[in-house]
Protein backbone atom coordinates (compact mmCIF):
# COMPACT_ATOMS: atom_id res chain seq x y z
CA UNK A 1 0.00 0.00 0.00
CA UNK A 2 2.90 2.33 0.74
CA UNK A 3 4.21 1.87 -2.80
CA UNK A 4 0.76 2.55 -4.31
CA UNK A 5 0.17 5.64 -2.14
CA UNK A 6 3.54 7.15 -3.01
CA UNK A 7 2.99 6.47 -6.72
CA UNK A 8 -0.34 8.34 -6.74
CA UNK A 9 1.11 11.17 -4.65
CA UNK A 10 3.94 11.42 -7.17
CA UNK A 11 1.47 11.66 -10.08
CA UNK A 12 -0.59 14.32 -8.31
CA UNK A 13 2.54 16.33 -7.56
CA UNK A 14 3.61 16.24 -11.23
CA UNK A 15 0.15 17.47 -12.30
CA UNK A 16 0.32 20.35 -9.83
CA UNK A 17 3.82 21.26 -10.99
CA UNK A 18 2.73 21.21 -14.65
CA UNK A 19 -0.35 23.36 -13.98
CA UNK A 20 1.64 25.93 -12.00
CA UNK A 21 4.22 26.09 -14.77
CA UNK A 22 1.52 26.66 -17.41
CA UNK A 23 -0.06 29.55 -15.50
CA UNK A 24 2.86 32.00 -16.23
CA UNK A 25 4.14 34.78 -14.03
CA UNK A 26 0.96 36.80 -13.92
CA UNK A 27 -1.51 34.01 -13.03
CA UNK A 28 -2.59 35.89 -9.90
CA UNK A 29 -3.97 38.72 -12.00
CA UNK A 30 -6.02 36.38 -14.25
CA UNK A 31 -8.80 35.22 -11.94
CA UNK A 32 -10.76 33.29 -14.58
CA UNK A 33 -7.67 31.40 -15.71
CA UNK A 34 -6.76 30.55 -12.11
CA UNK A 35 -10.25 29.12 -11.47
CA UNK A 36 -9.98 27.09 -14.67
CA UNK A 37 -6.70 25.49 -13.62
CA UNK A 38 -7.90 24.83 -10.09
CA UNK A 39 -10.96 23.10 -11.52
CA UNK A 40 -8.79 20.90 -13.77
CA UNK A 41 -6.52 20.14 -10.83
CA UNK A 42 -9.42 19.08 -8.59
CA UNK A 43 -10.78 16.81 -11.36
CA UNK A 44 -7.34 15.18 -11.70
CA UNK A 45 -7.06 14.55 -7.98
CA UNK A 46 -10.58 13.09 -7.78
CA UNK A 47 -9.85 10.82 -10.76
CA UNK A 48 -6.60 9.54 -9.28
CA UNK A 49 -8.22 9.01 -5.87
CA UNK A 50 -11.11 7.04 -7.38
CA UNK A 51 -8.65 4.89 -9.35
CA UNK A 52 -6.67 4.21 -6.21
CA UNK A 53 -9.83 3.23 -4.27
CA UNK A 54 -10.98 1.01 -7.13
CA UNK A 55 -7.61 -0.76 -7.27
CA UNK A 56 -7.62 -1.26 -3.51
CA UNK A 57 -11.17 -2.69 -3.47
CA UNK A 58 -10.33 -5.04 -6.30
CA UNK A 59 -7.30 -6.31 -4.44
CA UNK A 60 -9.33 -6.84 -1.27
CA UNK A 61 -11.90 -8.90 -3.12
CA UNK A 62 -9.38 -11.47 -4.41
CA UNK A 63 -6.98 -13.67 -2.48
CA UNK A 64 -6.34 -16.74 -4.61
CA UNK A 65 -3.65 -17.94 -2.21
CA UNK A 66 -6.29 -18.52 0.48
CA UNK A 67 -8.44 -20.64 -1.85
CA UNK A 68 -5.38 -22.53 -3.01
CA UNK A 69 -4.37 -23.31 0.59
CA UNK A 70 -7.74 -24.92 1.33
CA UNK A 71 -7.57 -26.97 -1.87
CA UNK A 72 -4.25 -28.48 -0.76
CA UNK A 73 -5.56 -29.00 2.77
CA UNK A 74 -8.51 -31.02 1.44
CA UNK A 75 -6.08 -33.08 -0.65
CA UNK A 76 -4.07 -33.85 2.52
CA UNK A 77 -1.01 -31.97 1.22
CA UNK A 78 -0.04 -30.01 4.35
CA UNK A 79 3.27 -28.72 3.00
CA UNK A 80 1.67 -26.95 0.03
CA UNK A 81 -1.28 -25.82 2.15
CA UNK A 82 1.12 -24.36 4.73
CA UNK A 83 3.04 -22.49 2.00
CA UNK A 84 -0.09 -20.91 0.53
CA UNK A 85 -1.47 -20.01 3.96
CA UNK A 86 1.70 -17.96 4.53
CA UNK A 87 1.29 -16.15 1.21
CA UNK A 88 -2.45 -15.64 1.84
CA UNK A 89 -1.72 -14.18 5.29
CA UNK A 90 0.79 -11.68 3.85
CA UNK A 91 -1.69 -10.60 1.16
CA UNK A 92 -4.48 -10.22 3.72
CA UNK A 93 -2.21 -8.00 5.82
CA UNK A 94 -1.46 -5.84 2.77
CA UNK A 95 -5.23 -5.53 2.29
CA UNK A 96 -5.60 -4.72 6.02
CA UNK A 97 -7.88 -7.75 6.45
CA UNK A 98 -6.74 -8.87 9.92
CA UNK A 99 -9.58 -11.37 10.43
CA UNK A 100 -8.60 -13.60 7.51
CA UNK A 101 -4.91 -13.13 8.32
CA UNK A 102 -5.64 -14.50 11.80
CA UNK A 103 -7.53 -17.46 10.32
CA UNK A 104 -4.47 -18.30 8.22
CA UNK A 105 -2.31 -18.26 11.34
CA UNK A 106 -4.69 -20.63 13.17
CA UNK A 107 -4.61 -23.12 10.28
CA UNK A 108 -0.81 -23.02 10.21
CA UNK A 109 -0.67 -23.49 13.99
CA UNK A 110 -2.95 -26.56 13.80
CA UNK A 111 -0.76 -28.02 11.00
CA UNK A 112 2.36 -27.60 13.11
CA UNK A 113 0.68 -29.08 16.20
CA UNK A 114 -0.33 -32.15 14.16
CA UNK A 115 3.27 -32.59 13.03
CA UNK A 116 4.62 -32.39 16.58
CA UNK A 117 6.16 -28.90 16.19
CA UNK A 118 4.59 -27.61 19.40
CA UNK A 119 6.84 -24.56 19.74
CA UNK A 120 6.07 -23.44 16.18
CA UNK A 121 2.35 -24.06 16.74
CA UNK A 122 2.47 -22.04 19.96
CA UNK A 123 4.23 -19.15 18.19
CA UNK A 124 1.64 -18.96 15.40
CA UNK A 125 -1.34 -19.22 17.76
CA UNK A 126 0.03 -16.52 20.08
CA UNK A 127 0.62 -14.30 17.06
CA UNK A 128 -2.97 -14.88 15.89
CA UNK A 129 -4.52 -13.49 19.10
CA UNK A 130 -3.88 -9.86 18.14
CA UNK A 131 -5.61 -10.28 14.76
CA UNK A 132 -9.08 -10.88 16.24
CA UNK A 133 -11.49 -8.41 17.80
CA UNK A 134 -12.73 -9.93 21.06
CA UNK A 135 -15.66 -7.48 21.09
CA UNK A 136 -17.19 -9.04 17.96
CA UNK A 137 -19.19 -12.21 18.61
CA UNK A 138 -18.99 -13.32 14.98
CA UNK A 139 -15.26 -13.90 15.56
CA UNK A 140 -15.71 -16.03 18.71
CA UNK A 141 -15.53 -19.32 16.77
CA UNK A 142 -11.97 -18.51 15.62
CA UNK A 143 -10.93 -17.06 18.97
CA UNK A 144 -11.99 -20.10 21.05
CA UNK A 145 -10.49 -22.51 18.49
CA UNK A 146 -7.18 -20.66 18.69
CA UNK A 147 -7.16 -20.70 22.52
CA UNK A 148 -8.00 -24.43 22.51
CA UNK A 149 -5.06 -25.12 20.20
CA UNK A 150 -2.84 -23.09 22.51
CA UNK A 151 -4.08 -25.18 25.45
CA UNK A 152 -3.27 -28.44 23.61
CA UNK A 153 0.28 -27.50 22.50
CA UNK A 154 1.11 -25.84 25.85
CA UNK A 155 0.02 -29.01 27.68
CA UNK A 156 2.18 -31.08 25.31
CA UNK A 157 5.12 -28.86 26.28
CA UNK A 158 4.42 -29.68 29.98
CA UNK A 159 3.22 -26.20 31.02
CA UNK A 160 -0.10 -27.31 32.53
CA UNK A 161 -0.79 -24.10 34.44
CA UNK A 162 -0.67 -21.98 31.26
CA UNK A 163 -2.66 -24.63 29.40
CA UNK A 164 -5.51 -24.25 31.92
CA UNK A 165 -5.53 -20.47 31.32
CA UNK A 166 -5.85 -21.01 27.58
CA UNK A 167 -8.70 -23.51 28.03
CA UNK A 168 -10.49 -21.01 30.30
CA UNK A 169 -10.24 -18.39 27.55
CA UNK A 170 -11.55 -20.92 25.00
CA UNK A 171 -14.58 -21.51 27.23
CA UNK A 172 -15.03 -17.75 27.80
CA UNK A 173 -15.37 -17.06 24.07
CA UNK A 174 -17.59 -20.09 23.30
CA UNK A 175 -21.33 -19.95 22.70
CA UNK A 176 -21.80 -23.53 21.41
CA UNK A 177 -22.49 -26.10 24.15
CA UNK A 178 -20.64 -28.88 22.30
CA UNK A 179 -17.52 -26.70 22.10
CA UNK A 180 -17.79 -25.82 25.78
CA UNK A 181 -18.06 -29.52 26.71
CA UNK A 182 -14.97 -30.29 24.61
CA UNK A 183 -12.91 -27.54 26.24
CA UNK A 184 -14.13 -28.53 29.73
CA UNK A 185 -13.09 -32.11 29.02
CA UNK A 186 -9.62 -30.94 27.93
CA UNK A 187 -9.38 -28.85 31.07
CA UNK A 188 -10.40 -31.81 33.28
CA UNK A 189 -7.77 -33.97 31.54
CA UNK A 190 -5.13 -31.48 32.69
CA UNK A 191 -6.35 -31.76 36.30
CA UNK A 192 -6.23 -35.54 35.96
CA UNK A 193 -2.61 -35.41 34.73
CA UNK A 194 -1.45 -33.18 37.60
CA UNK A 195 -3.27 -35.38 40.15
CA UNK A 196 -6.04 -32.95 41.07
CA UNK A 197 -8.73 -35.66 40.80
CA UNK A 198 -11.42 -33.76 42.68
CA UNK A 199 -11.25 -30.81 40.28
CA UNK A 200 -11.34 -33.19 37.33
CA UNK A 201 -14.35 -35.13 38.71
CA UNK A 202 -16.23 -31.89 39.34
CA UNK A 203 -15.86 -30.90 35.69
CA UNK A 204 -16.78 -34.39 34.38
CA UNK A 205 -19.91 -34.40 36.55
CA UNK A 206 -20.87 -31.01 35.13
CA UNK A 207 -20.48 -32.35 31.58
CA UNK A 208 -22.64 -35.44 32.32
CA UNK A 209 -25.46 -33.27 33.69
CA UNK A 210 -25.74 -31.30 30.45
CA UNK A 211 -29.14 -32.13 28.94
CA UNK A 212 -27.88 -31.30 25.44
CA UNK A 213 -24.95 -33.70 25.60
CA UNK A 214 -24.63 -36.06 22.62
CA UNK A 215 -23.75 -39.75 22.75
CA UNK A 216 -20.08 -39.36 21.86
CA UNK A 217 -19.49 -36.65 24.45
CA UNK A 218 -21.42 -38.65 27.05
CA UNK A 219 -19.29 -41.74 26.40
CA UNK A 220 -16.11 -39.68 26.63
CA UNK A 221 -17.17 -38.06 29.92
CA UNK A 222 -18.28 -41.43 31.34
CA UNK A 223 -14.93 -43.03 30.44
CA UNK A 224 -12.94 -40.11 31.86
CA UNK A 225 -14.88 -39.94 35.12
CA UNK A 226 -14.46 -43.68 35.66
CA UNK A 227 -10.73 -43.47 34.84
CA UNK A 228 -10.29 -40.57 37.26
CA UNK A 229 -12.07 -42.43 40.06
CA UNK A 230 -9.94 -45.51 39.38
CA UNK A 231 -6.73 -43.44 39.47
CA UNK A 232 -7.92 -41.83 42.68
CA UNK A 233 -8.80 -45.24 44.18
CA UNK A 234 -7.22 -48.36 42.56
CA UNK A 235 -9.93 -50.53 44.19
CA UNK A 236 -12.72 -48.68 42.38
CA UNK A 237 -14.53 -50.88 39.86
CA UNK A 238 -14.52 -48.83 36.67
CA UNK A 239 -15.37 -51.79 34.41
CA UNK A 240 -19.19 -51.29 34.12
CA UNK A 241 -18.83 -47.68 32.98
CA UNK A 242 -15.93 -48.58 30.66
CA UNK A 243 -18.04 -51.26 28.97
CA UNK A 244 -21.07 -48.97 28.78
CA UNK A 245 -19.02 -46.31 27.06
CA UNK A 246 -17.51 -48.96 24.73
CA UNK A 247 -20.96 -50.14 23.59
CA UNK A 248 -22.02 -46.54 22.84
CA UNK A 249 -18.88 -45.97 20.76
CA UNK A 250 -19.29 -49.22 18.88
CA UNK A 251 -22.86 -48.23 18.07
CA UNK A 252 -21.75 -44.74 16.93
CA UNK A 253 -18.73 -46.17 15.06
CA UNK A 254 -16.57 -43.65 16.89
CA UNK A 255 -13.02 -44.85 16.12
CA UNK A 256 -11.36 -42.20 18.29
CA UNK A 257 -13.67 -43.12 21.16
CA UNK A 258 -12.99 -46.84 20.65
CA UNK A 259 -9.24 -46.17 20.74
CA UNK A 260 -9.73 -44.43 24.12
CA UNK A 261 -11.95 -47.26 25.51
CA UNK A 262 -9.49 -49.99 24.52
CA UNK A 263 -6.67 -47.98 26.11
CA UNK A 264 -8.49 -47.66 29.44
CA UNK A 265 -9.66 -51.29 29.45
CA UNK A 266 -6.11 -52.50 28.80
CA UNK A 267 -4.81 -50.41 31.68
CA UNK A 268 -7.61 -51.65 33.96
CA UNK A 269 -6.83 -55.34 33.28
CA UNK A 270 -3.05 -54.91 33.30
CA UNK A 271 -2.81 -55.58 37.03
CA UNK A 272 -5.43 -58.35 37.14
CA UNK A 273 -5.85 -60.32 33.93
CA UNK A 274 -2.95 -60.14 31.48
CA UNK A 275 -4.87 -61.92 28.74
CA UNK A 276 -7.68 -59.35 28.81
CA UNK A 277 -5.16 -56.51 28.93
CA UNK A 278 -3.30 -58.05 25.94
CA UNK A 279 -6.62 -58.46 24.04
CA UNK A 280 -7.63 -54.81 24.46
CA UNK A 281 -4.10 -53.61 23.69
CA UNK A 282 -4.26 -55.51 20.38
CA UNK A 283 -7.67 -53.93 19.68
CA UNK A 284 -6.21 -50.53 20.42
CA UNK A 285 -3.30 -51.15 18.02
CA UNK A 286 -5.70 -52.15 15.24
CA UNK A 287 -7.86 -49.03 15.64
CA UNK A 288 -4.78 -46.77 15.90
CA UNK A 289 -3.45 -48.30 12.68
CA UNK A 290 -6.84 -47.71 11.06
CA UNK A 291 -6.79 -44.07 12.27
CA UNK A 292 -3.18 -43.70 11.11
CA UNK A 293 -2.37 -42.24 14.54
CA UNK A 294 1.33 -42.84 15.15
CA UNK A 295 1.18 -41.70 18.79
CA UNK A 296 -1.68 -44.11 19.57
CA UNK A 297 0.15 -46.98 17.81
CA UNK A 298 3.22 -46.31 19.97
CA UNK A 299 1.01 -46.20 23.06
CA UNK A 300 -0.60 -49.54 22.08
CA UNK A 301 2.83 -51.12 21.46
CA UNK A 302 4.01 -50.00 24.91
CA UNK A 303 1.03 -51.81 26.44
CA UNK A 304 1.61 -54.89 24.28
CA UNK A 305 5.22 -55.06 25.44
CA UNK A 306 4.07 -54.98 29.07
CA UNK A 307 1.25 -57.57 28.85
CA UNK A 308 2.19 -59.82 25.89
CA UNK A 309 3.44 -63.41 26.29
CA UNK A 310 7.24 -63.63 26.58
CA UNK A 311 7.64 -65.01 23.06
CA UNK A 312 5.87 -62.00 21.48
CA UNK A 313 7.52 -59.34 23.64
CA UNK A 314 10.64 -59.13 21.47
CA UNK A 315 8.53 -58.75 18.36
CA UNK A 316 6.50 -55.84 19.81
CA UNK A 317 9.61 -54.21 21.21
CA UNK A 318 11.31 -54.25 17.80
CA UNK A 319 8.15 -52.80 16.22
CA UNK A 320 8.00 -50.12 18.89
CA UNK A 321 11.67 -49.20 18.43
CA UNK A 322 11.39 -49.08 14.64
CA UNK A 323 8.19 -47.03 14.72
CA UNK A 324 9.61 -44.65 17.35
CA UNK A 325 12.74 -43.98 15.30
CA UNK A 326 10.64 -43.52 12.19
CA UNK A 327 8.28 -41.15 13.96
CA UNK A 328 11.15 -39.08 15.36
CA UNK A 329 12.84 -38.91 11.96
CA UNK A 330 9.57 -38.02 10.24
CA UNK A 331 8.75 -35.33 12.78
CA UNK A 332 12.22 -33.86 12.54
CA UNK A 333 11.97 -33.81 8.76
CA UNK A 334 8.49 -32.34 8.96
CA UNK A 335 9.59 -29.68 11.42
CA UNK A 336 12.60 -28.85 9.26
CA UNK A 337 10.43 -28.81 6.14
CA UNK A 338 7.96 -26.37 7.66
CA UNK A 339 10.84 -24.29 9.00
CA UNK A 340 12.38 -24.25 5.50
CA UNK A 341 9.05 -23.17 4.00
CA UNK A 342 8.85 -20.36 6.54
CA UNK A 343 12.45 -19.38 5.84
CA UNK A 344 12.01 -19.35 2.08
CA UNK A 345 8.78 -17.39 2.37
CA UNK A 346 10.36 -14.83 4.68
CA UNK A 347 13.37 -14.59 2.35
CA UNK A 348 11.13 -13.96 -0.65
CA UNK A 349 9.21 -11.38 1.34
CA UNK A 350 12.45 -9.73 2.50
CA UNK A 351 13.74 -9.61 -1.08
CA UNK A 352 10.46 -8.12 -2.24
CA UNK A 353 10.53 -5.51 0.52
CA UNK A 354 14.12 -4.69 -0.39
CA UNK A 355 13.21 -4.15 -4.06
CA UNK A 356 10.13 -2.19 -2.96
CA UNK A 357 12.28 -0.06 -0.66
CA UNK A 358 14.73 0.63 -3.48
CA UNK A 359 11.87 1.63 -5.80
CA UNK A 360 10.42 3.90 -3.13
CA UNK A 361 13.85 5.41 -2.59
CA UNK A 362 14.18 6.10 -6.31
CA UNK A 363 10.72 7.65 -6.40
CA UNK A 364 11.55 9.71 -3.33
CA UNK A 365 14.72 10.96 -5.04
CA UNK A 366 12.70 11.95 -8.10
CA UNK A 367 10.10 13.54 -5.84
CA UNK A 368 12.77 15.50 -3.97
CA UNK A 369 14.28 16.69 -7.26
CA UNK A 370 10.90 17.81 -8.55
CA UNK A 371 10.14 19.40 -5.21
CA UNK A 372 13.46 21.27 -5.37
CA UNK A 373 12.65 22.39 -8.92
CA UNK A 374 9.24 23.52 -7.72
CA UNK A 375 10.81 25.50 -4.87
CA UNK A 376 13.34 27.00 -7.28
CA UNK A 377 10.52 27.95 -9.63
CA UNK A 378 8.59 29.59 -6.80
CA UNK A 379 11.73 31.40 -5.66
CA UNK A 380 12.35 32.68 -9.19
CA UNK A 381 8.72 33.74 -9.42
CA UNK A 382 8.94 35.47 -6.04
CA UNK A 383 12.24 37.10 -7.04
CA UNK A 384 10.78 38.37 -10.28
CA UNK A 385 7.70 39.67 -8.46
CA UNK A 386 9.91 41.37 -5.84
CA UNK A 387 12.09 42.89 -8.58
CA UNK A 388 9.03 44.30 -10.37
CA UNK A 389 7.58 45.61 -7.14
CA UNK A 390 10.93 47.08 -6.08
CA UNK A 391 11.41 48.72 -9.47
CA UNK A 392 7.91 50.16 -9.37
CA UNK A 393 8.49 51.35 -5.81
CA UNK A 394 11.73 53.08 -6.79
CA UNK A 395 9.98 54.76 -9.71
CA UNK A 396 7.20 55.91 -7.39
CA UNK A 397 9.79 57.15 -4.88
CA UNK A 398 11.48 59.15 -7.62
CA UNK A 399 8.17 60.63 -8.75
CA UNK A 400 7.29 61.51 -5.13
CA UNK A 401 10.76 62.92 -4.59
CA UNK A 402 10.45 65.14 -7.67
CA UNK A 403 6.96 66.18 -6.62
CA UNK A 404 8.10 66.93 -3.07
CA UNK A 405 11.02 68.93 -4.45
CA UNK A 406 8.64 70.90 -6.63
CA UNK A 407 6.32 71.50 -3.69
CA UNK A 408 9.29 72.45 -1.55
CA UNK A 409 10.51 75.08 -3.99
CA UNK A 410 7.01 76.32 -4.77
CA UNK A 411 6.51 76.72 -1.05
CA UNK A 412 9.80 78.53 -0.68
CA UNK A 413 8.99 80.84 -3.56
CA UNK A 414 5.59 81.51 -2.09
CA UNK A 415 6.89 82.13 1.44
CA UNK A 416 10.16 83.86 0.75
CA UNK A 417 9.53 85.60 -2.51
CA UNK A 418 5.81 86.10 -3.14
CA UNK A 419 4.99 87.18 0.44
CA UNK A 420 8.16 89.29 0.55
CA UNK A 421 7.19 91.03 -2.67
CA UNK A 422 3.70 91.62 -1.32
CA UNK A 423 5.17 92.98 1.91
CA UNK A 424 7.39 95.32 -0.10
CA UNK A 425 4.41 96.43 -2.18
CA UNK A 426 2.53 97.15 1.02
CA UNK A 427 5.38 99.30 2.33
CA UNK A 428 5.60 101.28 -0.92
CA UNK A 429 1.85 101.75 -0.87
CA UNK A 430 1.68 102.89 2.75
CA UNK A 431 4.81 105.09 2.91
CA UNK A 432 4.25 108.44 1.16
CA UNK A 433 7.88 109.06 0.36
CA UNK A 434 9.97 105.97 -0.29
CA UNK A 435 13.70 106.31 -0.06
CA UNK A 436 15.19 105.13 -3.34
CA UNK A 437 18.29 103.57 -1.76
CA UNK A 438 16.22 101.75 0.86
CA UNK A 439 13.96 100.37 -1.82
CA UNK A 440 16.96 99.24 -3.88
CA UNK A 441 18.43 97.51 -0.81
CA UNK A 442 15.21 95.64 -0.22
CA UNK A 443 14.99 94.67 -3.88
CA UNK A 444 18.60 93.44 -3.79
CA UNK A 445 17.75 91.39 -0.64
CA UNK A 446 14.76 89.96 -2.47
CA UNK A 447 17.06 89.11 -5.41
CA UNK A 448 19.50 87.34 -3.11
CA UNK A 449 16.69 85.34 -1.56
CA UNK A 450 15.52 84.23 -5.02
CA UNK A 451 19.08 83.36 -6.08
CA UNK A 452 19.96 81.39 -2.98
CA UNK A 453 16.61 79.66 -2.55
CA UNK A 454 18.04 76.33 -3.84
CA UNK A 455 20.67 76.40 -1.07
CA UNK A 456 18.04 76.50 1.71
CA UNK A 457 19.52 79.68 3.07
CA UNK A 458 17.48 81.54 5.65
CA UNK A 459 17.31 85.29 5.48
CA UNK A 460 15.55 85.54 8.82
CA UNK A 461 17.30 86.49 11.99
CA UNK A 462 16.43 83.70 14.43
CA UNK A 463 18.59 85.05 17.24
CA UNK A 464 17.89 87.57 19.97
CA UNK A 465 16.20 90.08 17.63
CA UNK A 466 13.57 87.63 16.37
CA UNK A 467 10.77 89.51 18.15
CA UNK A 468 11.81 92.72 16.42
CA UNK A 469 11.98 91.09 12.98
CA UNK A 470 8.53 89.59 13.53
CA UNK A 471 7.09 92.92 14.72
CA UNK A 472 8.69 94.75 11.78
CA UNK A 473 7.12 92.32 9.32
CA UNK A 474 3.69 92.61 10.97
CA UNK A 475 3.82 96.43 11.11
CA UNK A 476 4.66 96.60 7.40
CA UNK A 477 1.04 95.69 6.71
CA UNK A 478 -0.31 98.79 8.50
CA UNK A 479 -1.38 101.91 6.61
CA UNK A 480 -3.48 105.06 6.80
CA UNK A 481 -6.70 103.06 7.01
CA UNK A 482 -5.36 100.02 8.86
CA UNK A 483 -3.93 99.70 12.32
CA UNK A 484 -1.89 96.76 13.59
CA UNK A 485 -1.84 96.15 17.37
CA UNK A 486 0.75 93.69 18.72
CA UNK A 487 0.47 92.49 22.32
CA UNK A 488 2.95 90.23 24.18
CA UNK A 489 5.60 89.87 21.45
CA UNK A 490 8.57 90.19 23.76
CA UNK A 491 12.06 88.75 23.60
CA UNK A 492 11.39 86.50 26.65
CA UNK A 493 8.44 84.92 24.84
CA UNK A 494 10.73 83.30 22.29
CA UNK A 495 13.41 81.98 24.64
CA UNK A 496 13.99 78.24 24.20
CA UNK A 497 12.04 78.06 20.94
CA UNK A 498 14.08 76.28 18.24
CA UNK A 499 14.95 78.20 15.04
CA UNK A 500 12.84 75.96 12.80
CA UNK A 501 9.69 76.70 14.83
CA UNK A 502 10.48 80.41 14.77
CA UNK A 503 10.86 80.33 10.97
CA UNK A 504 7.59 78.45 10.53
CA UNK A 505 5.74 80.90 12.83
CA UNK A 506 7.22 83.86 10.90
CA UNK A 507 5.95 82.48 7.57
CA UNK A 508 2.56 81.59 9.07
CA UNK A 509 2.07 85.11 10.38
CA UNK A 510 3.28 86.55 7.09
CA UNK A 511 0.77 84.39 5.23
CA UNK A 512 -2.07 85.49 7.53
CA UNK A 513 -1.20 89.16 7.11
CA UNK A 514 -0.99 88.82 3.33
CA UNK A 515 -4.36 87.13 3.15
CA UNK A 516 -5.80 89.78 5.51
CA UNK A 517 -4.69 92.57 3.22
CA UNK A 518 -5.87 90.78 0.07
CA UNK A 519 -9.28 89.67 1.24
CA UNK A 520 -10.56 91.01 4.58
CA UNK A 521 -10.56 94.83 4.09
CA UNK A 522 -9.90 95.05 7.82
CA UNK A 523 -9.20 98.37 9.52
CA UNK A 524 -8.02 96.94 12.81
CA UNK A 525 -5.87 93.84 13.38
CA UNK A 526 -5.04 92.64 16.87
CA UNK A 527 -2.28 90.08 17.53
CA UNK A 528 -1.88 88.66 21.05
CA UNK A 529 1.09 86.47 22.08
CA UNK A 530 1.25 84.58 25.36
CA UNK A 531 3.13 81.60 26.78
CA UNK A 532 2.25 78.98 29.41
CA UNK A 533 4.27 76.09 30.79
CA UNK A 534 4.07 74.00 27.60
CA UNK A 535 2.79 76.05 24.66
CA UNK A 536 2.95 79.40 22.91
CA UNK A 537 -0.47 80.71 21.95
CA UNK A 538 -1.11 83.34 19.27
CA UNK A 539 -4.51 84.98 18.81
CA UNK A 540 -5.31 86.84 15.59
CA UNK A 541 -8.46 88.92 15.10
CA UNK A 542 -9.63 91.61 12.66
CA UNK A 543 -12.78 93.53 11.88
CA UNK A 544 -12.84 92.81 8.17
CA UNK A 545 -15.25 90.91 6.01
CA UNK A 546 -13.59 87.60 6.85
CA UNK A 547 -11.76 85.13 4.61
CA UNK A 548 -14.45 82.71 3.48
CA UNK A 549 -13.18 82.80 -0.06
CA UNK A 550 -9.57 82.40 0.99
CA UNK A 551 -9.86 79.50 3.43
CA UNK A 552 -9.26 76.78 0.81
CA UNK A 553 -6.54 78.61 -1.14
CA UNK A 554 -2.95 77.39 -1.29
CA UNK A 555 -1.62 79.96 1.12
CA UNK A 556 -3.85 78.94 3.99
CA UNK A 557 -3.41 75.26 3.14
CA UNK A 558 0.34 75.79 3.49
CA UNK A 559 -0.34 77.54 6.78
CA UNK A 560 -2.11 74.47 8.12
CA UNK A 561 0.70 72.22 6.94
CA UNK A 562 3.30 74.45 8.58
CA UNK A 563 1.59 74.54 11.96
CA UNK A 564 1.26 70.72 11.85
CA UNK A 565 4.98 70.42 11.10
CA UNK A 566 5.77 71.95 14.49
CA UNK A 567 3.07 69.82 16.22
CA UNK A 568 0.75 72.79 16.58
CA UNK A 569 -2.89 73.54 15.84
CA UNK A 570 -4.75 76.35 14.06
CA UNK A 571 -8.45 77.22 14.37
CA UNK A 572 -10.40 79.56 12.09
CA UNK A 573 -13.54 81.19 13.52
CA UNK A 574 -15.39 83.06 10.76
CA UNK A 575 -18.96 82.67 11.99
CA UNK A 576 -19.61 86.41 12.43
CA UNK A 577 -20.20 88.50 9.34
CA UNK A 578 -17.50 91.18 9.94
CA UNK A 579 -15.00 89.57 12.22
CA UNK A 580 -12.36 86.86 11.92
CA UNK A 581 -10.59 85.10 14.76
CA UNK A 582 -7.72 82.69 14.38
CA UNK A 583 -6.14 80.74 17.25
CA UNK A 584 -2.66 79.23 16.92
CA UNK A 585 -0.90 77.07 19.47
CA UNK A 586 2.34 75.06 19.37
CA UNK A 587 4.73 73.54 21.93
CA UNK A 588 7.89 75.58 22.30
CA UNK A 589 10.18 72.70 23.47
UniProtKB/TrEMBL annotation:
Gene Ontology MF term list: kinase activity
TPR repeat ranges per the UniProt record: 144-177
Matches recorded under InterPro entries: HATPase_C_sf, Sensor_HK_TwoCompSys, TPR-like_helical_dom_sf, TPR_rpt
PROSITE patterns, alphabetized: TPR, TPR_REGION
One example of a Gene Ontology biological process annotation: phosphorelay signal transduction system
One Pfam family per UniProt: TPR_10
UniProt KW keywords: Kinase, Membrane, TPR repeat, Transferase, Transmembrane, Transmembrane helix, Two-component regulatory system
Keyword Ligase tagged: no
Transmembrane parts of this sequence: 12-29, 35-52, 370-387
SMART domains according to UniProt: TPR
The protein, known as: Uncharacterized protein
Organism: Pedobacter cryoconitis
